Amino acid sequence: MTSRQPTRRTVLRSAAVLGLAGLGGTGRALAADSPPTSAAADGYVYGYAPVTLARTRAAGLAATGVNELARQVALATPRSTRVVAPNVDTLYCSAWLDLRDGPVVLSIPDGGDRFRVFQFLDVWTNTIANVGTRTTGQGAGRFAVVPPGWTGASPSDVTAIPVPCWDVWLIGRTLVRGPDDVAAARAVQRTYGLAALPGTTPPVGAPPRLPAPRPGNPPNPQDPADGGVTFFDELAAILAADPPPSADAPLLDRLAALGVVAGATPSTGTPANVAALTAGVAEGDALVTEAARTPLSPAGTWGTSLDLGTYGTDYLLRAATAKRALAANLPAESLYYTSRGDVNGEALTGTTTYRLTFPTPADLPPTAAGGFWSFTVYGEDMFLVDNPIDRYAIGDRTPDLTHNPDGSLDLYISATPPPTHEPNWLPAPPGPFTVMARLYSPTTPWTPPPFHPV
Questions:
Q1: Is 120 helix (H, G, I), strand (E, B) or coil?
Q2: What digits encode the pLDDT tens for the residues 325-358?
Q3: Is 137 left (phi over 0), alpha (psi -120 to 50) or beta?
Q4: Domain of 84, in residue numbers
Q5: How many domains does the chain have?
Q6: Which residues are paired to 452 by β-bridges?
């Protein structure tokens, strides 16, 4: 029996059937002798996540420096548009680590009974490690993020986290139990610290740094294609600053034939190469956009994946996740489910009232002690949408949720409040929308109930 490499069409079909973050295992292994535009399109898919992350970094560094912890002081709102699909369950803190001068140490106090997690991502958006409630417990700790090739010793009270890259995105999430708990969560965040490991010397042989943020408005993280062929200049700078995994060599060899190599400026290449790269940006962006759409078929579909956070060579999954849920964590830490269609296969729209029913407590999202769950509504751009009661998510911490006499729970989603059910109402925009279910510290994979029009 012979096997054949999947074509772009079959790969994309597989991706779309599984939906957002449900692309694992599809791969994008195209023939090495594919036309230049196809190679460029594959290169765009490959570079989408790291370029998006680098642009997000540039936007973040406009307000703070490298190796400095920025703390969110309020829950996300519709004005929170730096990173797609923000949650409203936790306060974020964030830092952009540059390890070329040596290890950086994260210090956290005893966490009491408040959930927290600190996620470390490489420039390719893989999750390298997690520190917090599930992995290291609630006790105080110090954790040194150690760059490649560093041979120093950490103090006995410091846990080393070796990383394979020189630039790391640190994201902390601290549970907020409700609007009245924001101040307390903010106070907890102020106890987190970030500092260089004392007494260390810079590692030998570090690569060049990522480009400094440009003055004025940084490039838009939500639209990496906006600069056309200069997308590949951004990718080439990343390749120089953070050498890619060896598994990427086959694709990078194809890009090298078009002048896309570490530190180069492909936008100034030969006319033929520039034309192929320009066309590849458009074709690749269409592939990513389509792959990131949660399907309406089969009816009642929720898209999810157990492959988030460690993408390997599944570049399309990586790109689609970056477009719709940048910095999604490992499934062991949090599960994400998205839907934009009802039980009949019709697109969700705020002009209809929908009901989600959990027949028994055992049917609620399964989380470990200290974990929690929520459903969040997003507009078509995957950002929060204004509503009259400033409620953007509903979940296990929502006050005054009303259960039915038989113990079941109904949640309602619509643009206008359903009569007599407002405590269980999650507002939606008048037009199309997407819902994301989140489970923090999940115990088992789970299937959310479908949306039933009322």
A1: strand
A2: 999 999 999 999 999 999 999 999 999 999 999 9
A3: left
A4: 64-196
A5: 3
A6: 355
